[in-house]
Amino acid sequence: MACVFGAWWLPTVGAQAASPDRPTAAVKEVQLALVWSPTRSPHGFLVSEKFDGVRAVWDGQVLRFRSGRPIAAPVWFTSALPRQSLDGELWMGRGTFDRLSGVVRQAVPNDEAWRAVKYLVFDAPRHIAAYAERVRGLQSALAAARVPWLMPVAHQTVKDPQDLQSLLADTVRQGGEGLMLHRADALWQSGRTDALYKFKPDLDEEGLVVGHQTGKGRLSNQTGALLLETPQGQRFALGSGLSDALRRDPPPVGAWVTYRYQDRTPSGLPRFASFVRVRDPE
Fold this sequence. Notes:
Elements: H1 25-28, E1 31-35, E2 45-50, E3 54-58, E4 63-65, H2 75-78, E5 86-91, H3 97-104, H4 111-114, E6 118-123, H5 131-145, E7 150-152, H6 161-173, E8 178-183, E9 191-199, E10 203-214, E11 223-229, E12 235-238, H7 244-248, E13 256-261, E14 263-264, E15 270-271, E16 274-278
Parallel strand pairs: 1-9, 6-7
Antiparallel strand pairs: 2-8, 3-4, 3-5, 5-6, 8-9, 10-11, 10-13, 11-12, 13-16, 14-15
């Protein structure tokens, strides 16, 4: 195949659904994004939609969650994947995260439900090439493979911050979550890196549940707020966005939750924070 990967697409022989073996250190070293500044120029970056799916890394043999735990995908789903590593999102469409999460986290895969799942691939980890070259190689290889559930993520360039803001607004208006910006000349590296950014109308972060505050009035005898600790070690109460069901049965101490916020106070705490979801243990 004439692409940057050479003879890159080598279908896996006898691929099997993942078994509950130990997570490998390699797959846990995923690339993570920083937060994009709206006034920054997008020159030199490739821009794509930020899909609200489940992060999935193919290590050449097993499809895994971000944590490294195997995903119990059907054999037909993984048998078409190459021996080389891939990084992407399992996705069923906009606004379907909860349904998707239920499907891909079953210990025994539901074959019919998995027919609606796509693997949106945005990178080839550890391949020695700039990101723009990796993207071109993925697009060429996946197009030639003709696997209906395996799709490369589309990228584009944007000339200035105003056009980027317009693209974000259009994406969100159509039900998208936001945008991802990847530096076109960047080599792959693990961890949080300035080669990758996320751009959303609201900021989000994860916090550790360290306690519960009892509610008042109609919420007496229920949870009024979760006491969270931020990655920076600060603590605050999160009550907005909690459903009645979560107030009756809140996430336990030790759980991680995702929350959205608009900006930060002078002391660094999130302002106008609202609960989004409990983060799955993966």
